[in-house]
Amino acid sequence: MGKKDRGKKSKKRFYDDEEEDYDEPTGSESQEAIPAAAGKQVDESSTKLDEYGAKDYRQQMLLKNDHSSRPLWVAPDGHIFLEAFSPVYKYAQDFLVAIAEPVCRPNHVHEYKLTAYSLYAAVSVGLQTSDIIEYLQKLSKTTVPDGIIHTFISDS
Questions:
Q1: I need a labelling partner for 59 at 20 to 30 A (CA). Which of 50, 125, 135, 140 fits?
Q2: What is the number of other CB atoms lying within 10 angstroms of the CB of residue 112?
Q3: What are the pLDDT digits (tens) for 90-124?
Q4: How far apart are CA 135 and CA 62, in angstroms?
Q5: What is the structure's pLDDT at 30?
Q6: Are 72 and 82 in contact (CB under 8 A)?
Q7: Sign of CA pseudo-dihedral 137, 142, 145, 146
Q8: Largest CA distance in the chain
Q9: Which of 112, 111, 145, 148 has its CA nearest to residue 129?
Q10: What mean pLDDT do residues 35-61 have?
């Protein structure tokens, strides 16, 4: 049998592209499984802009004395920046993966975002809110903003 003969003997398979009908839940049914705290957003009304239009957190985030040995910046809008060159990077990264969603992870500084869903997931796997706050305060170069601690983490 040559190459031409093999092609003629094979049978072509045809698949039906039938779409399965799934019942889409209506708006009220889909919202029942989502806790109310999961839709909560961080309050950014107190954030001012600098002369270039960038968010200016200098008044809200004061550097700690030993900031050079800490790997995190926790912004009032829920963004967390992790220095990948820190000696405790691996521990901080494991912690952040458990409590936040990754946004951008280039070589030297990784960005994460605290969301109500990520905090809800962290609590559902056994992390306590008091432990989350304690570790953020230990790892942060600056004071952790009150809006993150009291109104976002504690209420979630």
A1: 135
A2: 23
A3: 999 999 999 999 999 999 999 999 998 999 999 99
A4: 17
A5: 46
A6: yes
A7: positive
A8: 82
A9: 148
A10: 65
Q: Among residues 151, 137, 131, 150, which one has the least CA distance to residue 61? A: 137
SS3 state at 55 = strand
Helix (H, G, I), strand (E, B) or coil at 72: strand
Distance CA 57, CA 21 (A): 50
Can you say whether the dihedral through the CA atoms of 68, 70, 71, 76 is positive or negative?
negative
Bridge-based pairing state of the strands 109-113 and 101-104: antiparallel
First and final C-alpha spacing in the chain: 70
Burial of 16 (0-12, 13-18, 19+ CB in 10 A): exposed
Question: DSSP readout, 110-130?
Answer: EEEE--HHHHHHHHHTT--HH
For residue 147, count other CB atoms closer than 10 A to its CB.
19
Instruction: Return the SS3 of 149.
Output: helix
Rounded Cα distance, 53 and 51, in Å:
6
